[in-house]
Amino acid sequence: MNASVSPNMSASRQYLDHLPAIALRIYKCSSLEGIVKTVVEDVQRLLNVDRALIYRFQANCGGKIIAESVQDGSCSIQDLDKKNVCFNDHLIHPYWQGGIRAIEQVETSDIEPHHKAMLKQLQVQSKLVIPIFYTAQIKLPFALPTNDGDETSSSEQLWGLLILHQCSNVRHWNHLEISLLRQLVVHMAIAMQKAKVQVFSSWLLESSMDGIMAFDRDGRYIVWNQAMEQIFGISQAEALGQRAFDLFPFLQETGENIFFKAALDGETSVAKDRPYRVPQSGREGFFEAYYCPLMEDFGEIIGGMAVVRDITARKQA
Questions:
Q1: Is 184 within 8 Å of 39 (Cβ atoms)?
Q2: DSSP codes of every residue in 109-150
């Protein structure tokens, strides 16, 4: 039998030094495909394991391998028949509790016979499994007006598993390696949320019937959707980067600065029956706007945003 091997503790401590760089690479990814690919490749290379993969659960209680990185000479299992890599409910339950599974020697472990046979067929001698939790609710970087003002609480769900296989020898998984992977899947979940928010925000901005704009702390426009172009006759290219009160002097005349300041102070407010006149485009009429602060992840106010609705037709009726 091959002797058990594990990197020494000094080398293991160096793993944690690599965490910021790996996290940065993950955050730079703009898609789920890019995120999971980066995770398995960096983990496989850094920990020098024979196989690193991510298994994603699906709504029908099944799942599939969505990313894999293998050592030279190791076989890929990404296209393995789904039934051969599925997880029964009793196997999944411990991961729901946040538990990990570190198997140093598959041959002598007490795992389910069917699961052991599958691992032996794949020539897996040691295995490590880390659960990946994900907040299903989309948390936008801005707030939208609601009818009742209720806020939906976030719900964490078991999204998938980060799985490591050692096939060439038996391996001891030490606590620093496990600590690295636990932290890494947290960064992965955050990156997934950011990517989802980015896609959803882009869709929301461009599909909204209402105008949506955002401004930084200097009052410069940083978001200007198509509906805003239609209301005021000013294109996105003309608006972005411009100070609101320089581009639209009427905002100062109608006292809109009060609502801008309220948003920057962290308050929400509603501006009703506001007249507008844009000499550049010849557009004029009335609008109403819902203002709120624009915040970063850690609660810092970086600007404000507003949902704007043209009410000219209603006022003239």
A1: yes
A2: ----HHHHHHHHHTT--EEEEEEEEEE-S---SB----SS--
Residues 127-173 have pLDDT tens digits of 999 999 987 554 544 444 444 444 434 457 889 999 999 999 999 99
Which residues is 276 bridged to in the sheet? 285
Within 13 A of 133's CA, how many CA atoms are on the CB side?
15
Residues 6+ apart with CB under 8 A from 164: 43, 47, 49, 51, 52, 127, 128, 129, 173, 181
pLDDT at position 47: 94
Distance CA 128, CA 294 (A): 41
Q: What are phi and psi of 135, to 5 degrees?
A: -85, 115
**How many angstroms separate the CA atoms of 205 and 9, rounded?**
50
Residue 180 neighbours by CB under 8 Å, 6+ apart:
15, 16, 18, 19
The pLDDT value given to residue 131 = 95
- 113 forms beta bridges with none
What pLDDT, on a 0 to 100 scale, did the predictor assign at position 86?
A: 55
Q: Check residue 92 and give left, alpha or beta (phi > 0: left; psi -120 to 50: alpha).
A: alpha
Tokens matching residue 101: 């599974």
Q: What is the three-class DSSP state of 237? A: helix
Render pLDDT for 177-231 as a digit per residue (tens, 0 to 9).
999 999 999 999 988 888 876 766 677 677 788 999 999 999 999 989 999 999 9
Pair 183, 132: CB distance under 8 Å: no
User: Virtual CA dihedral for 105, 111, 115, 120, nearest 10 degrees?
Assistant: 20
